[in-house]
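Database export, one record per block. Field names are fixed; values are copied verbatim from the stored entry.
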Amino acid sequence: METKKALITGITGQDGSYLAELLIKNGYQVHGIVRRASTINTGRIDGILSEGKINLHYGDLGDTNSIVSILMKVKPDEIYNMGSMSHVRVSFDVPEYTGQITGLSAIRILEALRSLGMTNVKYYQASSSEMFGLSAPPQNEETPFKPQSPYGCAKLYAYWITKTYRTAYNMFACNGILFNHESPRRGETFVTKKIVRGAVRIKLGLQNKIVLGNLKAKRDWGFAGDYVEAIYKIMQHREPDDFVVATEDHHTIEEFAEKVFNKLDLKLADHLEIDDRYFRPNEVPDLMGDATKIKKVLGWEPKVKFDDLIDMMIKEALKEENDKIRKNS
């Protein structure tokens, strides 16, 4: 049986790294697109990279020619479009760039597949709960989209163009509408990682306060490792379809922060500073998914609970900070 080839955009990110590991485990030959940079940014995949288990290709989601060249070279069986400008708050500062990378990357890949006669290649679009915006929870596949950020709007374009190419060209093109998902690999500027890292550094006496924005926003948080298993199930389904992926549990940012600080025997109120710079121009108050469809159709269930996710992130953050201390001592 011929080995399947998968191409992952955003392979160096949180989701891309977990997905690469899962696909390798399932016997795939894995390829990834990375941007050329003057600094090394492969930390999340160094383990599998050093073992020669993935093949990296320089390219850019804003450059059609590089996408076409990589598709012709790799000839993948499956494409997972995980790459994007993924920070919602920052999307207000770079709205055009967000549209180019988060939104138009989907059409660049899909149109490249069509024009190259590769419409038999399976395509996965990483869609986002931010598309729901102001729609009241719980949100499912039938909930109206009301995005409130350039990021949410860009993701919505990618979502609809994926559905359009599916019907227009009979392509296996599908969307996973993922709610917030975290892990020890989450980027430093995202609020969950910022809270965990800040609390750990306060515990170790390395800083005294943490600066946050809106504490009242509610989010449905899951574990990224669980969510890439949902992504894989979506792509192996007998027909292309769109699925909400969520835990069906939501908490405020304040609840998340208090739990982190309590687990470290700290009081959030003693170390918290609120800064208007971290508020979004448009706030999304409450996101909680209804994952009935994916549970029923694909049999997917989240394994890692909210508390376990926090414990996992704290443990890794403590290890990282202690390693830095030892290295500098």
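Remark 1: The chain has a mean pLDDT of 95.
Remark 2: The domain at 188-219+250-286+305-328 is CATH 3.90.25.10 (UDP-galactose 4-epimerase; domain 1).
End of record.
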